[in-house]
Amino acid sequence: MTAPVFQQDQDLSGLIACPRCDVLHRAEELADGQRAKCARCGTVLMWPREGAFLHVVSFSFTGMILMIGAIFFPFLEIAAGGLSHKSSIFGVAMAFSDGFLAPLAFAVLAMIVALPIFRFVALIYTLWPLANGRPAYRHAATTFRLVQELQPWAMAEIFIIGTAVALVKIAGLATVSLGPAFWAFCALIIVIALKNSFVSDWTIWKAIGQK
Amino acid sequence: MNALTATDAGLVGCTRCGLVWHQDVSHCGRCGAHLRIVNSHGLQAVWAWWIAGLVFYIPANLLPMLVTTTLGHAQKNTIVGGAIELWKHHNYGVALIVFGASIMIPIGKFIAVAYLAIMVGNERRRGGAPHLHMLEVVEFIGRWSMIDVFVVAILSALVQLGFVASIHPGPAAASFALSVAFTMLSAQSFDPRLIWRGPDREKK
Q1: Any bridge partners for residue A3, and if so which?
Q2: Residue ranges of the domains in chain A?
Q3: CA-CA distance, A197 to A55, in Å (whole number)?
Q4: Predicted structure pTM score
Q5: What is the number of domains present in chain B?
Q6: Containing structural domain, residue B22
Q7: Which ipTM was obtained for this model?
Q8: Which three-class secondary structure state does DSSP give residue B46?
Q9: Quick one: B7 and B77 in the same domain?
């Protein structure tokens, strides 16, 4: 396991500084499934898993296909008193497109569709060559850094809980039917969670860094 | 626990990928992130976003979030009003989710981030793990406030039954979304490494 450093090393490439509390550790090779935690604050520093890159690539592919389906299939439909109205995911974002709320429409579209898709594509771009044992493509470092930085802003899972709340609010007012896009989105959340369980930042950075 | 930190060793650790560099290096050679030396200047950004978030939180609560028109009769609901409405209709669970996500979480975030920022460099702070844990909870839970914006979007997109019933978003939706985004940025600008550094070593 990684041990905290008490004396300064000359070679810096084998060191890892905990991003949360700054304690220096010597990075050592871990066996499959082992976790290295920071000795002071307990933040997980490395978590390599066998075949992780290929898993992340395949989950990203699945996620991308589900998201494309979620965009084009109908999302929700309501009916009351002989009238009905349906909306796609795109229509949900466009709910804010009137007047001065228009920028919010773009923000919502980014948070629920554009950013999750970008992260899938960027992860495939970064990890595909690495999974095949080849050197990373150009700008892989920038791409993967963006993947990490944009993570808090991709809110697909929050959106689906929002949908549940909205459904309860409408329930008394009209009958709601759930479209294929709704189920695609639910599946998407599970795929994202599975994908995240295979991402070990340090391992990916190390692979990108090897020229 | 007195393990050597990168700063004490005269080095700087990349907060993005963990690699360690000499302090005169400005960008991480592996991931390209800007290398920040641990000091309390970063707190200015935390406070700037914090104040921006608070400023937008006020109209978010005073202005209507939803405008519901049923049979020609328009009703405007604020965030709190919407939660109360749900409670009255016996949807207690959902009322609590809405109340938690739009009232408790934002206010809790303001208090938690301010507390963490004030306690940096305070001699009497107990520091360490509980504070880091608090920041992680704020970072994790903060995004969930956006739920109310999505609810408004879904309701407004779906409930468009002409004269019978229609729902439109109110101006509070925009200020609430901005408030959530600003407080997320505030928590993100907080450098957790500050939590661990005592005031004595801060002066250097």
Answers
A1: A26
A2: 1-48, 52-209
A3: 10
A4: 0.88
A5: 2
A6: 1-37
A7: 0.87
A8: helix
A9: no
